[in-house]
Amino acid sequence: MTAQDAAQEEICQEIVAVLKKYNLSFKEALQVLDITKITVGLLPINSYPKK
């Protein structure tokens, strides 16, 4: 199993746990997963656009 496989498995488990905790549907799950926020969260601090 690669790191990517392991990460995917862990992420799926985390998402399912959160959805169950808040009693959300699959459709709501797609709205909860904010790719922009995830991308920004993974950026190094110095790569944020200068204001």
Structure characterization notes:
This protein has 51 residues and is mainly alpha-helical. The longest helix has 20 residues. The protein is flat. The protein has three helices and no strands.
Short description:
With 51 residues, the protein is mainly alpha-helical.
Please specify the SSE layout and strand pairing.
Elements (H helix, E strand, L loop, with lengths): L2 H20 L3 H7 L2 H8 L9
The radius of gyration is: 14 Å
- Biggest sheet overview: none
List low-confidence stretches: none
| Measured distance between first and last alpha carbons | 42 Å
H/E topology pattern:
HHH
Structure class: mainly alpha
Strand percentage: under 5%
Q: Number of DSSP strands?
A: 0
Our count of helices gives: 3
Shape label: flat
Share in helix: 55-70%
